[in-house]
Amino acid sequence: MTTPRKGALPAITLRSDDFDALDRLVGDLPGTGPAGLLQQELDRAKVCEPKAMPKNVVTLNRWLHYSDDHSPEVRRVQLVLPKDADIDAGRVSILSFVGAGLIGLKEGQSIAWPDTSGAVRKLTLVKLEEPEATN
Predict the structure, then answer these.
(1) Mean pLDDT of all residues in 78-83
(2) Which residues are CB-contacts of 21 (< 8 A; sequence separation ≥ 6)?
(3) At residue 66, what are phi and psi to the nearest 5 degrees?
(4) CA 64 and chain centroid, separation
(5) Where are the annotated coiled coils located (predicted)?
(6) Quick one: which of 43, 57, 69, 70 has its CA closest to 102?
(7) In whole angstroms, what separates CA 51 from the centre of its chain?
(8) Cα torsion through 46, 50, 54, 56, rounded to 10
(9) What does the mean pLDDT of the chain come to?
(10) What is the rounded CA–CA span in Å between residue 38 and residue 45?
(11) CA pair distance 26, 82, nearest whole angstrom
(12) pTM above 0.85, yes or no
């Protein structure tokens, strides 16, 4: 299993429907790389019903702004399932290192998280955008 993270990890919260979708997604994948890291996050997450989910926590399909200590710019992305990923449109797969690291964080939280090269970066959730209205 991939475990290059150091220090205490921040508490994370997942919506029960996101947890179920992500659990199914990683269920058949090898326990290495982003899938292994995502599985570790699922194992330690507090899970709550969608109506009880705090509004300042990253969920699937929510637009967010984050920073990384290796770049001065704040990036705007949406965390999505792999089938919906489109990096040019800012839709980042939950099975990427960044996606697995940001899910469940609340605004202002940071996490020490590996990148594709194995180097550990500090990802910080700067802000969440208001969720889009759903019918």
Answers:
(1) 96
(2) 60, 81
(3) -135, 160
(4) 10
(5) none
(6) 57
(7) 20
(8) 100
(9) 89
(10) 10
(11) 11
(12) yes
pLDDT of residue 70: 85
At 74, give phi and psi (nearest 5°): -95, 130
pLDDT of residue 29: 76
Residues 6+ apart with CB under 8 A from 50: 15, 16, 17
Distance in angstroms (rounded) separating the CA atoms of residues 84 and 89:
10
CA 54 to chain centre: 15
Instruction: Answer whether residue 1 shows pLDDT above 50.
Output: no
Task: Give the whole-angstrom CA distance, residue 29 versus residue 72.
Answer: 34
Instruction: State how far the Cα of 59 lies from the Cα of 124, in Å rounded to an integer.
Output: 15
Name residue, tokens 């040019």: 88
- Cα distances from 105 to residues 28, 88, 100, 108, 133, in angstroms, run 25, 24, 10, 8, 22
Nearest to 122 by CA among 133, 104, 108: 108
Q: Which amino acid is at 102?
A: L
The one-letter amino acid code at 104 reads G
pLDDT tops 50 at residue 33: yes
